Every structure is written in structure tokens, then in C-alpha cells.
Amino acid sequence: MDGAAVSVNIKHPSGRSAKVFVLPQDTILSLIVKACERLGGSPAWQLLSYRGVQLAAEERDAKGRKVFPLWREYSFPAGATLSLTDFGPLRDCCERHGSPSHNRGACLDNVGDEICRINHTEFRGIRVGQISNLVSFLRNLGEAGTGFVADWRDRGDESPTKCEPMSWQDMNLYQVVDWVVKPATNHHRCSFVELVASESNAQRPSWFCSH
């Protein structure tokens, strides 16, 4: 297959899918860009996965420099169906644009890639509504009837359910960090609160809870 384009199927959380052609020299990032051209969304907010393996669009080397893996570094065959997770709905877009919360989906296309930076960790409080939005995000990813999220598997080395499929109802915080918090914030190197915030002052906490 050297030099020849091969096709893969990309499945969006909405149920839509697209066939994308890739060349041997294509990176995972370029594959995501091609998928977004067909399915919409910003490449900065996407994660590709295949049978429980996260296909990282970018990694960091020992010196902290960005590295963009080639799609050939992952073991999925031509014609495989990959799952796309769009983290765009986690953004606080409706507060940013003044839209009502029940119309959250209508303003996603207007959201840029800007991040609400909050330099002081102690000011990164999270609101109940933002946690509820995270729960809704996971619920929408779950398959009807089973609640399982396509291509998501438990990757915890010490977990008793390692490599098993995950349902949104039974996810623990370790799994949410692995499949949502880390991949969603990797591109911008930010905290989860900075990812979902619309303005820094709105995140200042009144109380601090530890465990």
C-alpha cells in the first residue's frame, strides 16, 4: 500500500459518518482535519479512537516539543471504522454568546479556539451547571439502550475492568479524566475549568472542598 491512498470510516457522536481517504504520510491530525471537513467541528476539540485505543493527534517529546504521530503508527486496517469524540459541546459557548442553555447546540459552530485562562489555581472553581453539562455530554455519547460509549475502553492498569467497554452511567473519575479531561485539554495545555469557562470571574469559588 506504499504511496496509495486507503479509506477509513469516521463515525461522529451524532450518528453521522464519513469515508476519508488517507495517504501513508498523513498524520492523525490531518486525518482529523479531513474528518472535520466532512462532518464539521474544530480539529482542536476532536479525539479519534479505535477499539479502546486513543489515536493521539499530538504528543510531546522529552523536551516538551510537539510531535504529530502518523496514522500508520497505529494498528488499524484500511476500511476500519474509527470513532470521533467532539469535545466542542463542553465549551461554555452559550454564556459566551448569550444564548439560552437549552439551545446549546445552536451556537457551537460560532465557538473559536480561545481559552479562558485563569492563572491562579485557587480561582479555578467549577460550577454545578458545568458539572451537569459534563454529565449530559457523557449521556449523549452513550448508545441507546446500553449506555456504552463507542470505542471507549477502561485503560486503567490497576482497574478490575481494564479493557472492558464503558457505559456513561458507570464511569468513575479516573475514566473521565482519561477519556475526557486529558484529551480535551491537551491541545491548549489548560485545565478543565479553563476549557469550559467563559469568563474568569465567574469561576472564583466561595468555598474550597478537599478530600
What does this protein look like?
The longest helix is centred in the middle third of the chain and has 14 residues, at 128-141. Strands 2-1-7-3-4 form a five-stranded mixed beta sheet, sandwiched between helices. The radius of gyration is 18 Å and the shape is globular. With 211 residues, the chain is an alpha+beta fold. The protein has helices at residues 28-39, 93-97, 128-141, 173-186, 192-196; strands at residues 6-11, 17-22, 46-50, 53-55, 59-60, 66-67, 81-86, 148-153, 165-167.
Q: Stretches where pLDDT falls below 50 for ≥5 residues?
A: 92-112
Task: Please summarize the sheet with the most strands.
Answer: 5 strands, mixed
From the N-terminal CA to the C-terminal CA, the straight-line distance is 54 Å
Summarize the amount of helix as a percent range.
Answer: 10-25%
Total DSSP helices: 5
Radius of gyration equals: 18 Å
Average pLDDT for all residues = 85
Structural class: alpha+beta
What sequence of helices (H) and strands (E) makes up the elements? EEHEEEEEHHEEHH
> What portion of the residues fall into strands of 2 or more residues?
15-25%
